[in-house]
Design goal:
The chain is mainly β. It contains one helix and eight strands. The protein has one domain. It has a six-stranded mixed beta sheet with strand order 4-3-2-1-6-7, with no helix packed on it. The longest helix has 7 residues.
Length: 111
C-alpha cells in the first residue's frame, strides 16, 4: 500500500481530541486509497490512512491499522489531513476519523 504524504492539522485552542488516536502521536500520515497515486509507503512515523466517502460526497479518512474491536469508532476527533501537493484528492482538508471510545465513554459523551 502506497500513498501521498499529508500533514495533520488540529486546533491550537482546543488541542487534540482523538482520545489517543494516531493524530495525538504523529504529525503526518500517508493517505492511501482509490485514486491516490502511490508514492510513499506507510511507516511508524507516517502511518497509513484510508480515504473513504460517505453519503456520496463526504470525504474522510481513517487509520489503516490499530482498530480496537472492543471500542466504538472510528469517529472524528477534530483533526484534518492536507497536502499542497497537486495530487491531493480534494480542494479542502479531509477529516481524519481516528478517535475510538469505550461503549461507556460513547454513552456518556453522546448525551
Amino acid at each position: 500500500m502506497k500513498g501521498l504524504l499529508c500533514g495533520i492539522y488540529q486546533s491550537k485552542e482546543i488541542g487534540n481530541c482523538s482520545n489517543g488516536g494516531i493524530s495525538s502521536k504523529v504529525s503526518s500520515v500517508i493517505l492511501c486509497g482509490a485514486g491516490i497515486l502511490g508514492i510513499f509507503e506507510p511507516t511508524k512515523e507516517h502511518p497509513g490512512v484510508i480515504l473513504d466517502k460517505k453519503m456520496g460526497h463526504y470525504l474522510y479518512c481513517y487509520p489503516s491499522e490499530g482498530r480496537d474491536e472492543s471500542k466504538v469508532g472510528w469517529m472524528s476527533g477534530g483533526t484534518f489531513v492536507y497536502s499542497s501537493d497537486s495530487r491531493f484528492p480534494s480542494d479542502y482538508p479531509i477529516p481524519l476519523h481516528d478517535r475510538q471510545e469505550t461503549e461507556k465513554e460513547y454513552e456518556i459523551l453522546s448525551k
